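Work Package 4 report. The design task specified in the project plan requires that, given a folded chain encoded as structure tokens, an amino acid be chosen for each position. We show below one input record used in the internal validation round.
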């Protein structure tokens, strides 16, 4: 379930409310996030705050659903709704943001990380891959060293480390993020819209070629990916062979 509230100077707060699964993302919840962002813009909100219920921002993809059809479509539709919204979107990262949770957080324009927040993109542990946009976004926010640490080393960054590397903009609570959203909601809307659009267009050109797309699809269609699913069902470590 996704809850949406409008408060203060017309900023919307979207809460991923699936705490019994640490806000793991499936197709239905991703579709709701995209719809909630679009509805917030349509309602006249001047900023959007996204957070999670309970102690997690999002534990990432619901692995019971990531193997099914439509997950990638839903994930990238949610990311696209956030990045193309004509108003600032702030992530209140109230706890772990893992995999797709990190992708959702970096899609937002600003991130306020609670002291308990952690970021990780452990795709190499389960035979998956993130799209070129995610790699480019990570690199733009936190640099090549952090991108390599997350994707090649499968490192986990705590809030302080994420802040020092530029992955988090501020350390603070959800309430601190609300104060920021409230302040941003008082700024000039046309100026904010221009700046957000200009930043996206000038710093994140779609410069990758078909080779990346081909390798990305190979990961998702590989025997290693299938092995990770079998290993999870059998409660064992996967045995990857590179096929």
């Amino acid at each position: 379930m996704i809850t949406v509230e409008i408060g203060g100077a017309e900023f919307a707060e979207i809460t991923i409310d699936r705490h019994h699964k640490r806000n793991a993302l499936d197709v239905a919840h991703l579709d709701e996030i995209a719809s909630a962002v679009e509805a917030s813009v349509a309602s006249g909100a001047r900023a959007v705050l996204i957070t999670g219920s309970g102690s997690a921002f999002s534990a990432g993809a619901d692995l019971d659903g990531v193997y099914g059809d439509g997950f990638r479509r839903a994930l990238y539709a949610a990311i696209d709704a956030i990045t193309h919204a004509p108003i600032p979107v702030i992530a209140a990262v109230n706890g772990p943001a893992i995999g797709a949770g990190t992708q959702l957080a970096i899609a937002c324009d600003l991130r306020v990380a609670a002291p308990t927040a952690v970021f990780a993109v452990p795709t190499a542990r389960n035979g998956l891959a993130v799209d070129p946009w995610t790699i480019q976004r990570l690199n733009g926010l936190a640099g090549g060293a952090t991108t390599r640490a997350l994707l090649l080393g499968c490192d986990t960054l705590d809030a302080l480390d994420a802040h020092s590397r530029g992955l988090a903009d501020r350390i603070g609570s959800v309430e601190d993020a609300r104060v920021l959203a409230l302040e941003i909601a008082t700024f000039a809307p046309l100026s904010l819209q221009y700046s957000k659009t200009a930043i996206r267009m000038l710093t994140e050109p779609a410069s990758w070629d078909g080779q990346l797309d081909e390798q990305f699809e190979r990961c998702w269609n590989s025997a290693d990916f299938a092995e990770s699913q079998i290993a999870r069902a059998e409660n064992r470590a996967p045995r990857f062979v590179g096929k």
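The chain has one domain: 2-195. Validation will be extended to a larger panel in the next phase.
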